[in-house]
Amino acid sequence: MCCAHLSRRQFLGTSSGLVAASTLGFSAAAAPPAWADDRWDPGRPFAMPARPLRVLPVLMYRTPTPREKTSWKSWGGVQTDSAANEEVARIAAELQRIQSQHAVPLEILPVARVKTVEEAQALASTPRDATVVYPATGSGEMLRACIPDQNTVIFTRHRSGPAYYWYEALSTRYLRPAAEAAAQPAPTGDRLLSVDDVVVDNLADLAWRLRALYAVANLRGARIVAVGGPMGKYAPEAPQVARDRYGMEILDVSYDDLAVRIQAALADARCMRQSEQWADAYLATPGTTLSTGRNYIVNAFMLYGVFKDLMEEHGASLFTIQQCMSTIMPMSDTTACLTLSLLNDEGLGAFCESDFVIIPTGILLYYIAGKPVFQHNSTFPHAGVVTCAHCTGPRRMNGERYEPTDLMTHYESEFGAAPKIEMPLGQELSFINPDYANPRWVGLRGSVIDNPYLEICRSQQDVRVDGAWEKLLDEVRDSHWVMAYGDYLKEAGFAARRFGVAWENISVA
């Protein structure tokens, strides 16, 4: 996973002068765009535009004064400033190891030392996305002062260094039980964290929690271009909830604006020549079969150039389009299906139907996994099997290789270009099924057992569900789900609570 040096600032920097024009209707769109030859490159490494997680490590300790014939110190191996110096160096080295060995994109701030409640409170003004508290010694009042919000992890030591007093003293006086936190994620009172927010010794356990917080930080305030405006499947209030709950900025681009851009690109010989070259390179990718008109592939690459222009002008690395099964077809003489797949394959987040019931969940899983995610329709579960299908499946689901793909028409229209992706049999998958009304997310894990050719959306997989699949029967909502290669249910559940969303994992071992 790229640690996201293709930042939001870079998107803004490439075309900051165009942002104002785009918000005023973008009359300049009539001019044909200039696309570099290598703007689309199937050999370019997967790179996800995002910002690293800014982490503040906090070492909490006291330096007690020896007193004769009485207890004068607590448990713990950090009781002096010299011991604290060694511990600061250990903490910094461990976080650097997490960044390099576990590929978590971090901006690690200098370790803050806290010896009093007042020093802990003074840290409130330090900008950060997450806090890792290392409570070597100190009082409960100090501990609470070191926890500014839910984006905090407590790391305590048993054998990974000097033993910590709070390895013994942490309890449900300070932490909520896991079941309570999962069911009622918004904390009340002074117990902001749960027992799941504590790590003992294990850097891998700290790493996956920081990865989840990295995803939380990048979802919060995310900018997304929404062509044709936002909507929500069976939930018209979904876009406003996305703004309120996740702080998302939805950048509404009209179809009138898009039509002018498409017309300019179609009329420009350079743009279409470039689209032809990209289409030829894509069709030459090993494992690619063409079962639709080549002209639809060429026009899908034309749309790719137009969509990328919109994203860059708006400083956004996320994209969605409404009415992608109707309005887009006559103006582009293709479908958006393959184009969305292409955007996902290079590291951008692209979703169809502008469904803001699923899009925030998809963005979160995209950042957690560091790989493309597949937004798809769900089906009625039976005998432990569900079928997942849509016409916009990403081809580079593991972030590296291109899966074998048959380029077909979009199913419902028998028109345009849509990828039928063949996922490896046995491939492990993580899913999130959002219950929008509650709010509550259901997580599940499964594995691919078939890539059938049913009369349904083109990219289709039969999946064997791990765990208590029968629980899905009560979760049938005719909704979109989102999937990613690999097992990321721990991270997803950890992140859900940061947005006040309840979590149930039906695939718990």
Structural commentary:
The protein contains 15 helices and 22 strands. The radius of gyration is 25 Å and the shape is elongated. Strand 9 (223-227), helix 8 (238-246) and strand 10 form a beta-alpha-beta unit. The strands form five sheets. Strands 14, 15, 18, 19, 20, 21 and 22 form a seven-stranded mixed sheet that branches. Strands 1, 2, 3, 4, 5 and 8 form a six-stranded parallel sheet that branches. The chain has a four-stranded parallel sheet with strand order 10-9-12-13, sandwiched between helices. The protein has 509 residues and is an alpha/beta fold. Helix 7 runs antiparallel to helix 14 and helix 11 crosses helix 13. The model is unreliable at 1-29 (pLDDT under 50).
User: Which runs of at least 5 residues are low in confidence (pLDDT < 50)?
Assistant: 1-29
Give the termini distance in whole angstroms. Answer: 27 Å
State the share of residues found in helices, binned by percent: 25-40%
Total of DSSP H or I helical runs spanning 4+ residues: 15
> Structural class, from helix and strand content?
alpha/beta
Q: Globular, elongated, flat, extended or rod-shaped: what is the shape?
A: elongated
DSSP, total strands: 22
Beta-strand level of the residues, as a percent range?
Answer: 15-25%
* Mean pLDDT metric: 92
- What Rg do the Cα atoms give? 25 Å
**Main sheet?**
7 strands, mixed
